[in-house]
Amino acid sequence: MDLAYTAAEEEFRARLRDWLAGTLPTLPPPPPAGDWPARRAHDSAWQRRLYDAGYGNVHLDASPTLRLIFLEETEKAGAPYVGANFVGLLHAGPTIAAEGTPEQRERWLGPILRGEEIWCQGFSEPDAGSDLASLRTKAVRDGDAYVVTGQKIWTSHAEVADWCELLVRTDPGAPRHRGITWLAMRMDAPGVTVRPLRTLAGSTEFAEVFLDEVRVPAADRVGEENDGWRVTMVTLSFERGTAFAGEVVACRRTLTEVATRARANGCWDDPVLRRRLGRLHAEFTALWRLVQWNVSEAAATGGVPGTGGSVFKLRYSQARQELYDATAEVLGPGALDLSLPWTRERLSSLSYTIAAGTSQIQRNILAERVLGLPKGR
Amino acid sequence: MDFRLSDDQRALRRGVRELLAGRFGREALRAAVDREGGLDRKLWRELGDAGFFALRLPEDEGGAGLGLPEAVLVFEEVGRVLLPGPLVATHLAAGSVPGAADGTAVVTAASELPSLVQHFEDADTVVVFASDGVPHRVDVPEAEAVPSLDPLTPLHRLPRPPLTPGPPPGAAVLLTAAEQLGSAARSTEEAVRHAKSRVQFGRPVGGFQAVGHLCAEMLVRTETARAAVYAAAVGGDLTEIAGAKLLADEAAVRGARDCLQVFGGMGFTWESDVHLHLKRALLRARRWLTTARAEEIQAQALASAF
Ligand SMILES: Cc1cc2nc3c(=O)[nH]c(=O)nc-3n(C[C@H](O)[C@H](O)[C@H](O)COP(=O)(O)OP(=O)(O)OC[C@H]3O[C@@H](n4cnc5c(N)ncnc54)[C@H](O)[C@@H]3O)c2cc1C
Questions:
Q1: What number is the ipTM of this complex?
Q2: Nearest CB to B246 within list A255, A282, A362
Q3: Does domain A7-114 have CATH number 1.25.10?
């Protein structure tokens, strides 16, 4: 049980902190909400700055501990969020790095790290959400390409993406998990139509993607044909593992801001609210420790986060919603004012128990895979 | 940073688990229940010989020279098997109250629960942790027996406070949290074991999601509390210790209740051990630091962060 960082890790932290202190004041202000091309340009420019300073590959190459330090420090300094680069840096990139050929790594990783190419995730379908393995978008081999037809949904950042990590069915006759293939598809390929969907928060951050006989070169397949489910599990373990570490830091900061606000407006004198905020403080401290626990496990097992990710994701998504419910208590009537960031965050937090595998699905995973209980129906 | 247990820590945990399995298995537990909590002094001395109480004393004082993380692992095992007795108080008194370190004395603390003393009749010495943080021997000529919620922890009420207690020592709070953690982990395991073997509607009840999800939530609470307790042991920060107690109390109490639910009617019997975990967890949740107090400490930390 050692929570001390090595001298080299502390040196990395100090250098990063210096660099952030010098760089962040020179960044342009974030673009207005809803302006997707501006958002893309902003996120890409930030990724380019990171790349030029030598931090571009931190999500792919660095040890889990350095990645944790990176997420902690950037969040503490108030640096921009990965934003539109989320899928590229935290999903598709790690998957390509782990499962791609040398040519594929060469072709795709550089542009991801330099912020030149944006990726989106085409997994979910109208009839395949939690039951992802029932996906039906079909791909038929035709010479040196796959011809893809079907529909994806809830595809975040689809509007500005260059590439899509796409799950398709290549063998309809095989058992469900054995007929799936992982493809990288260009979003500007003929036959791809993107229709934005409005979220309950009013934004259009995800979309429906219609695919009509889209030709995807066979060379853009990652992993073997029909081995896509295994490749997908690699991707999902990254998503549930350390991807949320920076957000825990952000939530802890928000909590201190809420406490300050509560003291200023008198809410703090209400012992019920005060104790509620106190409990959240213990909760988020523990969640940070859980992240460190998972990172230590990941570092020891070669980088792929384990089922600790499901424990974390369940508790974190719940705690985040409780945090923003508490902000509403402190805001009073301001909780109805959509111009306030906490009010908007409260709405966004509603997606946390759904996206990246619902809470019910995480409980199934823990019950079946960790506790060894019989499969439910 | 490597938050995982070291090889030595794993070996320590294994050793303690084996010792307790041999000396305090199910039969010994039920015998203790039948004795209504009266302590087995021979076992107490064996625990002393094995270093339970002197664990954190320096080697030149006859201790093992280990730290809070190791003590936490030991007390987690204690919590798993519901070992009775004022273990935390005696552990903390080692080095200052004669006989505590080697288990020849049983030391109980009058500051652990407000106005109540545990194991009063078995104790050789009653101490109070005053504001200087160290145990002060106090003279308690008489105390009135109170029927105890927990069959393994006899309670006596003191006519008047012997000495004004100070804030609870961090180690006392943390080791109590570690016992809660062990109990929470055990309740999760027992619930899962039962859910795999009890068949209704032609299948193990663990195959029903309503049951499986209860077990998953027990696991989540246990593992979150574990991260909190272990980290607090490494850092020794008082606020973090209070937070760890808060989460461990919740994991143990709710874990035992959910375990009872999974056990069905069997869970409501005297014969099953489920109620023993629940009752002790309820008692530990009041020891040293209540939920209300722990939440206030967290709130104070938040308020002073700016
Ligand atoms: C903000 C946001 C962004 C997203 N971004 C992307 C993206 O970029 N790319 C992508 O591919 N997908 C994305 N998703 C989709 C997300 O992965 C799915 O919404 C999620 O997996 C749930 O699927 P569903 O919406 O079809 O719900 P359903 O699977 O229809 O679930 C409905 C309800 O049934 C429950 N349920 C389903 N099956 C079970 C079961 N076996 N046991 C118990 N309960 C069950 C669920 O928990 C839920 O409560 C995003 C979703 C959100 C909210």
A1: 0.95
A2: A282
A3: no
